[in-house]
From TrEMBL:
This is non-specific serine/threonine protein kinase. The lineage of its organism: Eukaryota, Viridiplantae, Streptophyta, Embryophyta, Tracheophyta. It catalyses: L-seryl-[protein] + ATP = O-phospho-L-seryl-[protein] + ADP + H(+); L-threonyl-[protein] + ATP = O-phospho-L-threonyl-[protein] + ADP + H(+). Its EC number is 2.7.11.1. It is found in: Membrane. The gene is H0512B01.9. GO terms for molecular function: protein serine/threonine kinase activity.
């Protein structure tokens, strides 16, 4: 009789439901950049939290969450120092991250100097979840802190960013695709109920005028990335403003999804096939299925700030489906930095002398047309009429 009772209990322990039980990260667990334990995985292995080498400088590391099963390990969250100091947390290879025995998550260097912690106490355990959310929890299972509440430049399915009554919640674009410094664009979930995109000054972070918004002042509630893959802004009256339709974008079962405020100022929703050779939407790469605004080159028209591409340059598209902004210099100008073209262009000719007589000076100037380019606030025509 005892054997008969034990047998069904054994079957229950081996069932798929129990095998998928959430794995917890216990107190005392430690990560180090160059050790076998450099990250904590979600149960499915889809996501990882831990140390990621900085592109172009593998001697330093980010504290980050990334897609773990795809080739480029796309980062979806990275630690910043504080809201007041949004610089990235970048540490040398001799650092370590520990969920301490007294219930804190602490990043320290070899000397024991603390470089970052999320300022929460009484943590009982942590969890890297299959949603991409890294969570610190109390003994009763309540959430003490989570990456979903502190977004960087990306949101994921099931993530919600509510309108806060005391301060704006925002996504801040990176400075460049491989530079995680705070960039030139901001997606603000504002205290007044509006969702808006802003051009911002670097490094101060001061906002210039908005170049896209939902125009929902007094009515906005929260930015939602639903579990079905739809991104929308929920209003207090129960209606929704679709940021993406959710239609024809690939199922959640077959594709990874993310929505990112990219370095060119566009908020794009992307999909990536979970299985090799299954990418009907563009192969084994991230493919944009929606974007706001639709044409970033036309969206930013401002008397202040440097626009999408910096001073003395103009904006085009790169010709791909993702429509990434591409910056170009006019004739006789060149980029300040070929690797960071958003910095704009400078003269590539000798400056003209002010001591020349009028006839000689005029002979040194030439007006050259550039076809297909619009100069909405600085065209020569407006000075002639």
């Amino acid at each position: 009789m005892v054997a008969l009772l034990l047998f069904p209990m054994l079957l229950q322990l081996l069932s798929p439901t129990c095998a998928q039980t959430q794995k917890n990260i216990t107190l005392g667990s430690t990560l180090a950049p160059q050790s076998p334990a450099s990250s904590w995985l979600s149960p499915s292995g889809d996501f990882a939290f831990g140390f990621r080498p900085v592109e172009g400088n593998t001697s330093f590391y980010l504290i980050a969450v990334w897609f773990n099963k795809i080739s480029d390990k796309t980062v979806v969250w990275y630690a910043k120092n504080t809201d007041q100091d949004p610089s990235i947390v970048e540490v040398p290879s001799d650092s370590f991250l520990q969920l301490t025995n007294d219930g804190a998550l602490s990043l320290k260097d070899r000397s024991g100097q603390e470089g970052w912690n999320p300022q929460v106490t009484s943590v009982a355990y942590a969890s890297m979840r299959d949603t991409g959310n890294f969570v610190l929890l109390g003994a009763d299972g309540t959430t003490k802190w989570q990456t979903f509440d502190m977004p960087s430049d990306t949101i994921l399915p099931t993530q919600v960013i509510p309108c806060n009554k005391t301060r704006n919640k925002s996504l801040r674009a990176r400075l460049d695709i491989d530079d995680y410094s705070s960039g030139r664009f901001l997606l603000d979930v504002q205290t007044d109920g509006n969702l808006a995109l802003y051009l911002v000054a670097v490094p101060s972070g001061s906002k210039y005028q908005q170049y896209w918004s939902t125009d929902t002042t007094g009515n906005g509630s929260e930015l939602v990335f639903s579990e079905t893959g739809k991104v929308y802004f929920a209003l207090t009256d129960g209606t929704q403003i679709n940021i993406s339709s959710g239609a024809g974008i690939g199922s959640m079962a077959d594709y990874f999804h993310r929505a990112t405020l990219d370095p060119d100022g566009v908020f794009r929703q992307y999909v990536y096939p979970k299985k090799a050779n299954a990418g009907i939407l563009g192969g084994e790469t991230w493919t944009a299925v929606s974007m706001q605004p639709q044409n970033i080159c036309h969206a930013i028209v401002s008397d202040v700030g440097s626009g999408v591409c910096g001073f003395n340059s103009y904006c085009t598209f790169d010709g791909t489906r993702n429509q990434i902004a591409s910056c170009q210099c006019p004739p006789w100008y060149k980029f300040f930095d070929e690797q960071k073209k958003y910095k704009g262009c400078k003269q590539d000719f000798q400056p003209h002398s002010c001591d020349l007589d009028e006839a000689t000076a005029l002979a040194q100037f030439e007006l050259r047309p550039i076809y297909g380019v619009d100069w909405p606030l600085s065209d020569y025509e407006k000075y002639c009429w």
